[in-house]
Amino acid sequence: MDTELTFEDILGRINAEGTFTASVLTSDDGLPVACMPVSSPYDADTIAAMVTLVKGYISDMQARLGLAEVNEVSLVVDDHSRLICRYFSAAGRGFVLTTIAPPGKSYRRLTSRAVREFTDVLENCDGGASDGNDQPSG
Q1: Is residue 25 helix, strand or coil?
Q2: What is the pLDDT of residues 46-62, one digit of tens each?
Q3: In angstroms, what is the C-alpha Rg of the chain?
Q4: Rounded CA gap, 136 and 138, in Å?
């Protein structure tokens, strides 16, 4: 793993390989960490807030129905593009990778690899420990 890999590098690569319209990494409390492209027509702050609302809804649903931990939510819109939210933990914190994929495009392999890379970067940057007050750098 390249220790100089940045969040933007990871997001840029999955956007290019998957022809994703946009990708955003957020903390699970709704703070945007990184987004690509930077000049995306989709506002990173709005995506981060929406992802937090979806996470709350999913948590309520899990509790009420007794479901196992949800690690992905995918919404398909009228044009058949897909909004994908991948939930994961790294360095003692929760994160969400959100991508917007075009119709019919495979995304799971790319987002799984990105989650592994984000986890490696976050855990190496923190040494695996967190006091809860520091933010990851990208």
Answers
A1: strand
A2: 888 888 888 888 889 88
A3: 15
A4: 7
End-to-end CA distance of the chain: 15
Please write the tens of the pLDDT for every residue from 81-117.
Answer: 999 999 999 999 999 999 999 999 999 999 999 999 9
Q: What is the total residue count of the chain? A: 138
Contacts of 67 (CB under 8 A, 6+ apart): 61
Q: Which residues contact 94 (CB under 8 A, 6 or more apart)?
A: 27, 28, 29, 87, 88
Give the DSSP H/E element, type plus range, for residue 124: helix 108-126
C-alpha to C-alpha distance for 75 and 30, rounded to whole angstroms? 19
Backbone angles phi, psi at 51, to 5 degrees: -60, -35
